[in-house]
């Protein structure tokens, strides 16, 4: 997905895609072997989708990548479209295939609205070639540079797979979000301003899957990673928070750590374990209430977690 990168939007619930095949100028169906460029239209299911959509045609009944005709030659270059408010905006690389049966793999990244989601995501892309078994490939996390052992958040990936008979049927497919969202809000337990000695704040969530399988969209699991992202202070210094970050799914009860770096270089760390798993299409908002940061023995007041299904829980972290 590095060929066309979009930041992320968490408002997508699902997108239906319809595709029909062009007929010859005399109205007849193309003969077998004729190259066909399907018509693509994105229809919103509950909310419209804007972003990038890539389509990977595989041989029927398999995950072996067939390829796509590009500049009249069979190529490993996949089909790519930009979608705006549910409709095709640009066919950057149209899907052009001979009539026949295929197994289509769809990957999309929804486009961000400023301030809604974290804009600095990154992933490592799979290596794609003709006749390759795409089930052996994955999108994987990208590590921060240097000696840092933590990883970037990811993009707002959506996914689908479906058998298609090009030339004889329309296509209707729903894209499903395969990542989770997390937002952290830090505030004082007495509703006063955060201490002016705070220089920076970073949140880290552990137990994050290292990747997503390219052919199934499922989390690949181990090795489990830790994803890091910054929190920004509000103008009135009452809270620190982040735009929603996107993560690959996690283990059950992933650990959460918030590190406050003070202007004198010292740090204060708050740790806890989330009671909810960050699974695909799950969004958690975690509110952390802290006391006086200069007392390393002070315990935070608790994490209040609001899930997309509006469940709320309180957990007690420890301060170091």
Automatic annotation (TrEMBL):
Protein origin, superkingdom: Bacteria
InterPro entries: FimB/Mfa2/Mfa3 (IPR014941)
Localization: Cell outer membrane
GO-annotated cellular components: cell outer membrane
Keyword Glycosyltransferase: no
UniProt key word Manganese: no
Keyword vocabulary terms for this entry: Cell outer membrane, Lipoprotein, Membrane, Palmitate, Signal
Family the entry assigns: Belongs to the bacteroidetes fimbrillin superfamily. FimB/Mfa2 family.
Protein name: FimB/Mfa2 family fimbrial subunit
Source species of the chain: Candidatus Rikenella faecigallinarum
Lineage, uppermost ranks: Bacteria, Pseudomonadati, Bacteroidota, Bacteroidia, Bacteroidales
């Amino acid at each position: 997905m590095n060929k066309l990168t979009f930041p992320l939007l968490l408002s997508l619930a699902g997108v239906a895609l319809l595709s029909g095949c062009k007929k010859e100028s005399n109205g007849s169906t193309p003969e077998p072997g004729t190259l066909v460029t399907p018509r693509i239209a994105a229809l919103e299911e509950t909310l419209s989708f804007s972003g990038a959509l890539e389509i990977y045609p595989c041989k029927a009944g398999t995950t072996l990548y067939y390829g796509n005709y590009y500049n009249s030659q069979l190529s490993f270059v996949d089909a790519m479209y930009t979608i705006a408010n549910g409709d095709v905006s640009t066919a950057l690389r149209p899907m052009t295939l001979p009539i026949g049966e295929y197994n289509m793999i769809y990957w999309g990244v929804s486009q961000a609205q400023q301030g809604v989601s974290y804009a600095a995501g990154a992933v490592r892309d799979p290596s794609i070639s003709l006749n390759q078994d795409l089930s052996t490939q994955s999108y994987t996390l990208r590590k921060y540079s240097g000696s840092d052992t933590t990883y970037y958040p990811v993009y707002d990936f959506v996914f689908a797979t479906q058998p298609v008979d090009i030339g004889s049927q329309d296509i209707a497919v729903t894209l499903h979000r395969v990542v989770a969202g997390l937002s952290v809000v830090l505030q004082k337990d007495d509703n006063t301003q955060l201490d002016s000695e705070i220089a920076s704040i970073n949140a880290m969530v552990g137990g994050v899957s290292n990747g997503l399988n390219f052919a199934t969209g499922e989390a690949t699991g181990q090795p489990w990673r830790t994803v890091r992202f910054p929190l920004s202070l509000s103008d009135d210094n009452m809270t620190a928070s982040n735009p929603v970050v996107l993560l690959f799914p996690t283990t059950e009860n992933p650990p959460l750590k918030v590190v406050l770096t003070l202007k004198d270089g010292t740090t204060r760390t708050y740790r806890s374990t989330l009671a909810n798993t960050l699974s695909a299409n799950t969004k958690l908002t975690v509110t952390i209430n802290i006391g006086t940061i200069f007392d390393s023995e002070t315990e935070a007041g608790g994490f209040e977690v609001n899930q997309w299904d509006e469940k709320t829980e309180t957990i007690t972290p420890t301060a170091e």
